[in-house]
User: Fold this.
Amino acid sequence: QVQLVESGGGLVQAGGSLRLSCAASGSIFSINAMGWYRQAPGKQRELVAVITSGGSTNYADSVKGRFTISRDNAKNTVYLQMNSLKPEDTAVYYCNVHYITYQAMGVIGSSWGQGTQVTVSS
Assistant:
């Protein structure tokens, strides 16, 4: 079992910053990619940022230049540093991890975090 625990969400004024954390635990052989998604009320879940095992990153156009995704491989943790926050960033943010476990070496599994609310006031 691979479990993800998210933290760092909260209420912040426009222009402020937050850092989200997502820690993965379980019988993990390797992590292929870690990413952050968000979902606002009435909207589909969208990819915010992703980082691969090789360190490559990709961001949604709406957050480029403001958000930074990073990882700590030793801790199986991914972070999302969010600066210059805007009201449009208000959403529930979900961590997602693609991984290979010892129990299923030939399969790339996927797990979701529980979600953390980010609210940006104007």
